[in-house]
Amino acid sequence: MDNATSQIPIPFHESSGEPIPDPGIAKAMDRIRESLERKAIAAGLPVPSNGKPLPNDVLRSALFGVSEKVFRREEKIASVEGLDVYMVRGYRPTQAHLDVWEQCLDLAAKHGTGKQIRFSAYSFLKAIGRNTGKSDYEWLKEAINDLASCLVRISNGRYSYFGTLIQDGFRDEETNEYVIKINEALALLFMGGRWTALDGEQRQMLRKHPLAQWLHAFYSTHADPYAYKVATLKELCGSDTEELWKFRQMLRRALEKLAETTGWECSIDDEDKVIVRKSKNRAKSLSG
User: Fold this and answer.
1) Residue 111: is it exposed, middle or buried by C-beta count within 10 angstroms (0-12/13-18/19+)?
2) pTM, 2 dp
3) Residue 155: inside a domain, yes or no?
4) What is the mean pLDDT of residues 53-62?
5) Is the torsion defined by CA of 144, 146, 149, 153 positive or negative?
6) Does 285 score more than 50 pLDDT?
7) 28 occurs within a structural domain
8) Is a pLDDT exceeding 70 seen at residue 232?
9) How confident is the model at residue 28 (pLDDT cuts 50, 70, 90)?
10) Which distant-in-sequence residues (6+ apart) come within 8 Å of 190 by Cβ?
11) What's the domain count of the chain?
């Protein structure tokens, strides 16, 4: 018998030139990553010396937009490149909701995520610069209900958060006292310095101008702002204005208000790009 024909043919693939990962190293890296994640969750949210912490992944999208919308099925919403944000279910929060969520995260940063956080409606409204009349108490009740029913998915390429913006809670209808929880997994969105503390005084000055508020939050996450097209910002802020020229008019007014409040230089150039230049001595926000 010919030895050459009796051998079982075994295909040998040419090497791609890439090193074969060592299983031991891969497992070690997984353990390190898991350890970092556990530590981040255990550490909770950051407590900045000025301002209240918010994840950049939220501020760089239309999640807290300028227009109201109800989602009954999962839908991807506009966000910057490298970031995926989905509304799974619920009422898309607006800039007014962001004031509430920002205060909730500030309380969670100080008292702990995943733990019961107690506050009165009166103290909460005062903390966010709101009036304390009957209609304001009702407004806060609705805003917290909206955030508790808003189910989202946020992925930055490394970590993905899926859950509601407020985990759960209850309210005493007689005393108007609240007890809420913030999901401890939200801490993962703050890893690597991916967060910003907004200038609260400036934000309050922009309260009646939701587009200017959105721009303020969005550009506060940029140390050196990129020149975005007007059409891109229209999508990113969640505007429901159909005509681009009409949105451009609204944007110009919002940029003027933003410049007046912050001291930033804001304009729209000949290529229909928004140019924002920050004055270093006026920029107070902390960007990740």
Assistant:
1) middle
2) 0.83
3) yes
4) 96
5) negative
6) no
7) no
8) yes
9) low
10) 40, 45, 46, 53, 55, 288
11) 1
How far apart CA 104 and CA 98 sit, in angstroms, is 10
Lookup: tokens for 274? 């928004």
* Domain assignment present for 49: yes
Mean pLDDT across 129-139: 96
User: What is the pLDDT, as a whole number, of residue 287?
Assistant: 45
Q: Hey, what's the torsion of the CAs at 42, 48, 49, 50, to 10 degrees?
A: -150
pLDDT digits (tens, 9 = 90+) for 104-127: 999 999 988 889 999 999 999 999
**Residue 252 zone, left/alpha/beta (φ > 0; ψ -120 to 50; rest):** alpha
Residue 104: which of 118, 90, 89, 122 has the closest Cα? 118
CB atoms within 10 A of CB 31: 10
Residue given tokens 């075994």 in the structure block? 10
Closest among 282, 284, 265, 270 to 225, alpha carbons compared:
265
Give me the domain span that covers residue 74: 44-277
Q: What is the mean pLDDT of the chain?
A: 86
Q: At what angle do helices 95-111 and 210-220 cross, to 10 degrees?
A: 40
CA angle 60, 115, 156 (to 5 degrees): 25
Cβ 234 vs Cβ 241: under 8 Å = yes
Interaxial angle between packed helices 210-220 and 244-262, expressed in degrees from 0 to 180 and rounded to the nearest 10: 70
Q: What share of the chain is helix, strand, coil (3-state, %, to 5)?
A: 40, 20, 35
Q: Which two tokens stand for residue 125?
A: 């409204």
6 found inside a domain: no
Find, among 133, 136, 113, 143, the residue nearest to 44 by Cα: 113
